[in-house]
Write a structure and sequence with these properties.
With 323 residues, the protein is of the alpha/beta class. It is built from 9 helices and 17 strands. It has helices at 2-13, 29-46, 62-73, 87-96, 161-172, 195-206, 219-229, 239-245, 269-278; strands at residues 18-22, 25-28, 53-57, 77-81, 101-104, 115-118, 141-146, 156-160, 184-187, 209-212, 234-237, 259-262, 283-288, 298-302, 310-311, 314-315, 319-320. The strands form 5 sheets. Strands 11-12-13-14-17 form a 5-stranded mixed sheet, covered by helices on one side. A 4-stranded mixed sheet has the order 2-1-10-9, sandwiched between helices. A 4-stranded parallel sheet has the order 4-3-5-6, with helices on both faces. Helix 2 (29-46) packs across helix 3 (62-73) and helix 7 packs across helix 8.
């Protein structure tokens, strides 16, 4: 699978660069590689090869992100559950996917009904980063995300490795969007939400650094601090965040921001223009797509002077992307 080989190259080529900033603590790609290898070794030696759907407790730490890549390198899928959601819901998710194994970096795991790999207590190991041979297995599942369940029982949405590769191909084909290993990227999303896939996948492919939002913080205010104090260059957000930030717009003039992408809600034209004024060197994209379409299915490149297409005051979402 090409995108996995490219992640491997990115990790190896950017070993001294930062990959993650979690609660103001930085981790390098070399640290990330070490964690991936530990977890991959545990997966290969603890989980039966026939088990493809592996539970993942989505803590805000390097081990959780490393677990995703380790599972992918082994040709397995992650089934994420938020540690802050009710345990009954998470049990339902694991039961409906017939999950037997769970990777959990928590100090004490509450998933005693499952075989738990504690990813924060593994010993140093030295397997390589080469992905398993995917010949004929491109339609294997890469992850399953569950809907909120607001209209009934949560439903699982399986996404294949082929689907993820198609997403990468579509973004790579867009000349307006091109990350590099000097970019500092916001990762504000819980890993059970589909938008998180693009906010960890594309920085990893480019060798960029991700800045996460600690659990328990006031999200919009922490984002405001990160933008100003860490000079972020790439922002991916839901529009509601800038609604909360609107009172602070007079204080925001961030020339470092190159890209700002929106999705997961309606982007209103009046606030889009005001936000654009805060980011004078930024290209703004408005994305749309249901989880079933692998995050995105179309986008509109907003510009406050040249691309203002809107209906009833809501910015357009563009045209469908082609494979």
């Amino acid at each position: 699978m090409k995108f996995l080989k490219n992640i491997q190259k990115s990790i190896e080529n950017n070993s001294k660069h930062n990959v993650l900033c979690v609660s103001n603590v930085y981790y390098t790609y070399n640290d990330f590689e070490s964690e991936i290898k530990k977890i991959r070794y545990a997966i290969a030696n603890s989980i039966d090869s026939s088990e493809k759907l592996i539970g993942l407790v989505t803590n805000d730490d390097i081990q959780t992100y490393a677990s995703i890549i380790a599972l992918w390198l082994e040709g397995k899928a992650y089934v994420p559950v938020n540690p802050d959601t009710p345990l009954d819901r998470n049990h339902h998710i694991f039961e409906s996917t017939k999950t037997k194994y769970v990777i959990d970096s928590s100090k004490e795991s509450i998933y005693s009904n499952y075989e738990v790999i504690n990813s924060s207590e593994l010993q140093e190991q030295h397997p390589n980063l080469s992905p398993k041979d995917f010949s004929g297995a491109e339609n294997d599942i890469a992850y399953i995300l569950f809907t909120s369940g607001t209209t009934g029982t949560p439903k699982g949405v399986p996404i294949t490795f082929n689907n993820v590769q198609a997403l990468v191909n579509a973004i790579d084909a867009e000349p307006e969007f091109n990350l590099n290993n000097k970019d500092r990227c916001l990762q504000m999303f819980e890993l059970t939400f589909d938008f998180s896939v693009v906010t960890y996948l594309f920085p990893l492919l480019a060798g960029s650094c991700m800045y996460t939002i600690p659990k328990g913080t006031i999200k919009y205010f922490y984002i405001f601090k990160l933008i100003k104090e860490k000079a972020l260059t790439v922002l991916t957000m839901v529009p509601s965040i800038i609604n909360y930030l609107r009172p602070y717009f007079p204080e925001i003039n961030e020339t470092s921001v190159r890209y700002c992408s929106f999705g997961g809600g309606a982007l209103h034209s009046d606030i889009a223009k005001e936000w654009s004024d805060c980011l004078p060197n930024c290209k703004i994209f408005n994305y749309y797509g249901p989880t079933e379409f692998t995050v995105y299915s179309g986008f509109y490149p907003y510009h406050k002077e040249t691309h203002q297409k809107a209906y009833n005051g809501i910015i357009a979402i563009g045209t469908p992307q082609k494979d």
